[in-house]
């Protein structure tokens, strides 16, 4: 890159170089996003993550574009779209966690609760028998 009048200002040269490199990385990423081959090989949960990533990325790029045009992106529809995508990201995470983090039943503890709740006792031959409660009439 030629900097012309800015050849003596190293700070601006570094910032412009970083900006140029970032734009090139974004262009490469967008080219990869356009590839349908990768998308077809993904599982359903990966497709959800991929779609959310693409939607969020494109809306963020548009938000940045509005900032460069000296417009307030908070007054634009893009802000509500970004919030909506964030809500869907949370929902996708909850759905993923629902399948991975499930409560487990502690079977011995449940048996103890049931045993003591029903009032069983063991007889001499070690078989459970039901203890009947005796009611006294006044």
From TrEMBL:
UniProt record, GO biological process: maturation of 5.8S rRNA; regulation of gene expression
Compartment(s): Cytoplasm; Nucleus, Nucleolus; Nucleus
Record flagged with keyword RNA-binding: yes
Keyword entries, A-Z: Cytoplasm, DNA-binding, Nucleus, RNA-binding, rRNA processing
GO molecular-function term, one example from the UniProt record: RNA binding
One Pfam family this sequence matches: Sas10_Utp3
GO cellular component, one term: nucleolus
Main localization (coarse): cytoplasm
Top-level lineage group: Eukaryota
Described purpose of this protein according to its UniProt entry: Plays a role in the recruitment of the exosome to pre-rRNA to mediate the 3'-5' end processing of the 5.8S rRNA.
Family the entry assigns: Belongs to the C1D family.
The protein's assembly and partners: Monomer and homodimer.
Name listed for the protein in its UniProt record: Nuclear nucleic acid-binding protein C1D
The species this protein was found in: Diabrotica balteata
């Amino acid at each position: 890159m030629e900097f012309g009048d800015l050849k003596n200002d190293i700070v601006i040269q570094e910032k412009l170089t970083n900006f140029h490199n970032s734009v090139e990385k974004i262009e490469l990423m967008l080219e990869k996003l356009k590839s349908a081959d990768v998308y077809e090989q993904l599982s359903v949960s990966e497709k959800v993550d991929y779609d959310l990533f693409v939607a969020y990325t494109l809306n963020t790029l548009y938000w940045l574009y509005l900032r460069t045009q000296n417009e307030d992106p908070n007054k634009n529809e893009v802000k509500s779209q970004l919030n909506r995508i964030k809500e869907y990201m949370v929902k996708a995470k909850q759905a993923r966690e629902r399948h991975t983090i499930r409560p487990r039943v502690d079977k011995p503890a449940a048996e103890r609760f049931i045993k003591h709740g029903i009032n069983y006792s063991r007889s001499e031959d070690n078989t459970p028998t039901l203890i009947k409660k005796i009611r006294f009439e006044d």
